[in-house]
């Protein structure tokens, strides 16, 4: 899986960054679209697809899983590799060519090694995500959707096999990162020469142009167009019964509210931490913020289990405190507060990363200029930083909103009784093999997942154009 | 004089309806010669360089390097890797993932001589001990010298420099420029420089080409383009210049400051502007003098005054800085022209 997404992501990224062919600018952003499909949706779509069309060659089993996961996760590599290629000054490739290397050889000797950290990071990210999915299977006491999917799929994915696969993935991702770091040595990769122009596109013609278009189109079709089409067909064939529309609307509203609340809470905490990091450069603060971001690498199910302990403790403390003032029992466990806390642990890294990056871009001289003009402290935040961060805050919130909406295992375990989200609805339907009924909520999730992708592409387009 | 680079009537247009970036440009560089192209930004000098390097395809004309035709518009195009051209970039473009030594050796074939050659090239630019360091561990000047060594290493038929010193501090620039000049002479290299800095062009080039709007306005030895510019643009671009109005008479040009020597091919009775450089103007303090010093800039070895004449015309004037006069001083003004350059009045 790792190798697959590595090859696919890097290859496609180079194709769209260095060459121009029919549809290349479309593919440059469309190839990110598979990210909008949560793995469990992709999984059940393919599963249902194969169930319905028995005449297809049987690609279930190991290869089927690998293919699905590659299709779902290659965009991580694609996005990072493409950004890395775009950042490289064209003069580097030109220098290589004036020194006698042809285009493909210059790519191997210069562009590829330079993009290596980004590519490896993308592959590691892809593997972590895959792990989070698989890890659900093993570390959870429940039968989760992921488990059901993978189990039905091959008949070989029992819990132990999944555990092994998951640990293998974790070790693999970790090893990849370590090896990459070790071989980097004293080299510097982020050494963007000043004032360099970007990579110049070469226009492909004839057969190679057709091949490039076909390759991109095939990946896009398999990874996005076909699954979504399948969902639409299912949702259509199921029709919209009157009662179902009613429950679906409630479902949508509940999901949106819960995710919205989570997005706001996490963004605020993230902002506080990122800001603390800017103001206080001490080792402890840096370390503490780094540490608080680690939840992103932990599968949601693990976090759910992990937060149960502290929540129960808080419940007990709260209960005794409240009893002394004569108020009845209030339980955090199984409450919205509990689930928000789990989301916070899981997704804080997303907020922290985005806001940190945005804060770093505000030069310190800006603070000093403001201070010399008599603006400092809280007014500095309000008058200088927040206005400058507005865009990033919005983007972060949007991203978190979508992420929490898609989150399944922690939601499943910690949700208040009676609360249903889209993800849970999908899980419940698919665990009963009711593909068509799961199609509508799945489509809704995919549509929501598209929002941040489109926003981000528009933003990057504006800055690069 | 064997030509090493011959550019014949080359043109390059980037967009429909836009003026050509390079327009019917011809240029010949002899073996071992250093030519500097200079011009304001957007004059097409960098595009010219990129056409020669093979990073751009010409829309018209032909390019030859060392007797091989490397580009004929629409018919023949040799890719950069087969042109035997070394390029030194404005941003240095050192490969950040390779050591200085590996950067220099990038264009060399593998073999035992590779290491010798790397060593030799690094020594040539005075960086013999930096072979194992990575680009980010080197200073800007050192990076630039590695870039030069890398371009020189494969003994290219032609070296191209794109604004090579503009990313360096002023004092460093002088120093690296000297190293580069020595290295070029030592290897007998042929080089084409592109720069927007006229001082740099005058200092580096055996010949200097002044470009504007995709064309070479004038190409010649530095003293010639400086002292005998063919038009006002060249005159103004290469250094401070003022134009003194006059009328051509039988024995010279009559101006506000007296009669000058007779210019070549000027029609008697025609209205002209005489080119005056700061070092052509002489002043001496005199309470009744016609000129007034209205500006003074101290530049170390010299002082640059601005003198206003009774007609309101202002002339630049450079004087040794040992004694200075305050602004407001009345002065006698004279001109001592070595070459009289006059342009017909518009």
Q: How do the helices and strands line up, and which of them pair or pack?
A:
The complex is a heterodimer of chains A (465) and B (346).
Chain A: H1 2-18, E1 19-20, H2 24-30, H3 39-52, H4 62-87, H5 90-98, H6 103-139, H7 145-154, H8 159-184, E2 202-203, H9 206-238, H10 242-279, H11 283-292, H12 300-324, H13 336-360, H14 364-372, H15 378-406, H16 409-414, H17 422-430, H18 435-464
Parallel strand pairs in A: 1-2
Chain B: E1 3-12, E2 22-30, E3 34-38, H1 45-53, E4 60-65, E5 68-72, E6 76-77, E7 85-88, H2 100-105, H3 112-124, H4 140-152, E8 158-162, H5 170-187, E9 191-195, H6 198-204, E10 207-212, E11 215-220, H7 222-227, H8 232-237, E12 242-249, E13 252-255, E14 258-260, E15 271-276, E16 281-285, E17 291-298, E18 302-308, E19 314-320, E20 330-335, E21 342-344
Helix pairs in contact in B: 3-4, 4-5
- The CATH superfamily of the largest domain in chain B is identified as P-loop containing nucleotide triphosphate hydrolases
Structural class label of chain A: mainly alpha
Instruction: Supply the CATH class of the largest domain in chain A.
Output: Mainly Alpha
Mean pLDDT of chain B: 90
Radius of gyration of chain B: 24 Å
Task: Describe the global form of chain A.
Answer: globular
Order of helices and strands of chain B: EEEHEEEEHHHEHEHEEHHEEEEEEEEEE
State the helix count of chain B: 8
Please give the CATH architecture of the largest domain in chain B: 3-Layer(aba) Sandwich
Short key terms for the protein model shown above:
A: 465 residues; mainly alpha; MetI-like fold; B: 346 residues; Rossmann fold; five-stranded antiparallel beta sheet; 23% helix
Could you walk me through the main structural features you see in this protein, from its secondary elements to its overall organization?
The complex is a heterodimer of chains A (about 475) and B (about 350). Chain A has two domains: about 1-240, MetI-like fold (Orthogonal Bundle), CATH 1.10.3720; about 240-430, Orthogonal Bundle (MetI-like fold). Chain A has helices spanning about 1-20, 25-30, 40-50, 60-85, 90-100, 105-140, 145-155, 160-185, 205-240, 240-280, 285-290, 300-325, 335-360, 365-370, 380-405, 410-415, 420-430, 435-465, and strands spanning about 20, 200-205. The longest helix of chain A is centred in the middle third of the chain and has 38 residues, at about 240-280. Chain A contains 18 helices and two strands. Chain A is an all-alpha fold and about 475 residues long. Chain B starts with a strand and ends with a strand. In chain B, strand 4 (about 60-65) and strand 5 (about 70) form a beta hairpin. In chain B, helix 3 (about 110-125) crosses helix 4 and helix 4 packs parallel to helix 5 (about 170-185). Helix content of chain B is about 25%, strand content about 35%. Chain B is α+β, with helices and mostly antiparallel strands. Chain B has two domains: about 5-85 and about 155-235, 3-Layer(aba) Sandwich (Rossmann fold); about 240-345, OB fold (Dihydrolipoamide Acetyltransferase, E2P) (Beta Barrel), CATH 2.40.50. Chain B has a six-stranded mixed sheet with strand order 7-8-9-3-10-11, with helices on both faces. A five-stranded antiparallel sheet of chain B has the order 2-1-4-5-6, with helices on one face. The model of chain B has no long low-confidence stretch (mean pLDDT about 90). Chain B has helices at about 45-55, 100-105, 110-125, 140-150, 170-185, 200-205, 220-225, 230-235, and strands at about 5-10, 20-30, 35-40, 60-65, 70, 75, 85-90, 160, 190-195, 205-210, 215-220, 240-250, 250-255, 260, 270-275, 280-285, 290-300, 300-310, 315-320, 330-335, 340-345. The chains are: A mainly alpha (about 475), B alpha+beta (about 350). The interface of A and B includes residues 97 and 187 of A.
